[in-house]
Each structure stands twice: as C-alpha cells, then as structure tokens.
Amino acid sequence: MKSFLIVTLTIIFLTACQQPLNKEKAKQEIYQTEKAFEQMCSEEGIQEAFYFFADDSAVIKRQNDTLIIGKQNIKDYYSNPAYKNALVNWTPDFIDISNDGTLAYTYGKYLWKIWNDTADTTEYRGVFHTVWKRQPDNSWKYVWD
C-alpha cells in the first residue's frame, strides 16, 4: 500500500510539473520543418529529402491508388531518373497539432516542375496533405504524405 501511494504521488507530481504545450510554437516548428524539407529537395535532391524527412514507417500516396510504404521504399521510388530533373515547391496553408504535441498535420498547394532532355517542362499542381510525428529527439518526421 505504501509503495502504491508513493508511485501515485510521484505520477501526480510529475504530471503537474509538465509544461503545457505551446501550440503556436509547435506550429512554427512544423512550418520550419516543411520549409527545410522543401529547401533540401532543391539543394540535395528530392530522393535525399524525402528519405531524410521520412519516419521509418512513413507512407506516401502517389497516383490514384499507389502506396509506397517504408522509408527505404520511398527512397527507392524517388530514385527514378525523372526526379533528378525536377523541382518541387509547396507551402502549408494550414497547420494543426494534437493536444499532446506528438502529431501534426499540414495541407497546402504544391507545384512540381519536371523537365526532359529537350528542356520541355511539365508542371503538376495540386494539394498536399502531410502528417507529422514528433521523434524522440523532438524533431519532426512525416508518416503520411
């Protein structure tokens, strides 16, 4: 009984000492992560950026019905030579975060530009939706894109 009381009081004390989540600060973290992701796509390549920002269990949806599951499979997907001649830009229009600060989501507009050997450019515009998961080191990785 004495041990139960000590454990219970310890849990109550630790819970009471936790800092409340600053949602606006967390939303800013997500925004900065989105922009760092976009910048890495431009500077180091789409394949490396999508790999770096992916959680180990990440899933991306491409085309109408294709799911690419897992960080390494995502990297393999973006190894297609077409992505070496591509740029992608996006900006989140909306960001929200869970009350416990472990998950967040964004959506907004994107623009892919892919050019071929003859310098013809194809553009794809659309709306993205990304789900982010806080990592043990407090960084954010996407689990759905």
Task: Quickly count the helices.
Answer: 4
- Estimate the helix proportion, in percent: 25-40%
Q: Specify the CATH class.
A: Alpha Beta
Terminal CA distance: 49 Å
The CATH topology name reads Nuclear Transport Factor 2, Chain: A
Q: What class do helices, strands and sheet pairing give? A: alpha+beta
Instruction: Output the helix-strand order.
Output: HHHEEHEEEE
Count the E strands: 6
Write down the overall mean pLDDT: 89
Shape: globular
Q: Supply the CATH architecture.
A: Roll
Strand coverage percent: 35-45%
Q: Can you tell me about this structure?
A:
The structure is a single chain. The protein is of the alpha+beta class and 145 residues long. The chain has one domain: Nuclear Transport Factor 2, Chain: A. Helices cover 36% and strands 39% of the residues. It has helices at residues 2-17, 23-44, 46-52, 71-77; strands spanning 54-62, 66-69, 86-97, 103-115, 121-134, 140-144. The chain has a 6-stranded mixed β-sheet. The longest helix is centred in the first third of the chain and has 22 residues, at 23-44. The radius of gyration is 20 Å and the shape is globular. The model has no long low-confidence stretch (mean pLDDT 89).
